[in-house]
Design a protein that fits this description.
Distance between the termini: 62 Å
Radius of gyration: 23 Å
Number of helices: 11
Helix content: 55-70%
Number of strands: 2
Largest sheet: 2 strands, parallel
Shape: extended
Order of helices and strands: HEHHEHHHHHHHH
Length: 206
């Protein structure tokens, strides 16, 4: 309920200029399933009309989930999500390791103050450096497009035109309708024979 309340308030605050919201949440695959029903059934939760919400799971967490969640909640297949990792606290683990020896001997209240101060300092540095950060990422992305353009075009020319057309049609449908249509990105691998079947076959031949 706390997550629902926070998300509804954040969306309502930006409703004047934003119609689509990308919610990246560690358990977004579970949280999003009945989010609309919870909003409808709770008087304290409201969303603007025509609001479209796309749920995703951060890349650090998604890799540990079951395969069925990957395509449907991966940031790789969300138009406009770029190449964000969707993680925040996890990116602070390494720098916060530097203060852990000092914080270890503090009282709980003092430790929380120190951690909060370092988190606020991290947020401030991100805020004042966001222009340089975005510019650096833009240049890197632009170079990546330039480096891969020729190999991609060569690969496309080597493929069957009809198959490419079918793939593009599937990709467009998956982008627009999402849900089960995103399953086209899942690996399709035939399962091998169980180990006990192989052992039985070996002993039978012997």
């Amino acid at each position: 309920m706390n997550v629902d309340y926070s998300i509804c308030n954040a969306i309502n605050q930006a409703a004047k200029s934003v119609d689509n919201s990308l919610i990246i949440y560690d358990v977004g695959c579970q949280w999003s399933l009945h989010f609309g029903e919870r909003v409808d059934n709770c008087p304290g939760l409201t969303l603007p009309d025509n609001t479209e919400i796309v749920a995703a799971v951060g890349k650090f967490h998604l890799s540990a989930y079951k395969l069925a969640c990957f395509a449907r909640y991966s940031l790789n297949f969300i138009l406009g999500a770029a190449q964000v990792d969707g993680e925040i606290l996890e990116t602070l683990w390494a720098p916060f390791n530097k203060i852990s020896p000092t914080a270890r001997s503090m009282s709980q209240a003092h430790r929380q103050e120190i951690l909060d101060d370092h988190m606020r300092n991290s947020n401030w540095k991100k805020l004042v450096g966001i222009v340089k950060t975005l510019l650096r990422k833009y240049k890197r992305a632009y170079k990546g497009i330039d480096d891969t353009k020729v190999p991609f075009e060569e690969l496309m020319r080597s493929l069957d035109v009809n198959k490419v057309s079918l793939w593009e049609s599937d990709q467009k449908r998956a982008t627009e309708q999402r849900g089960e249509h995103l399953d086209i990105y899942n690996l399709k691998i035939d399962k091998g024979e169980p180990v006990y079947s192989l052992l039985y076959a070996i002993h039978s031949d012997g």
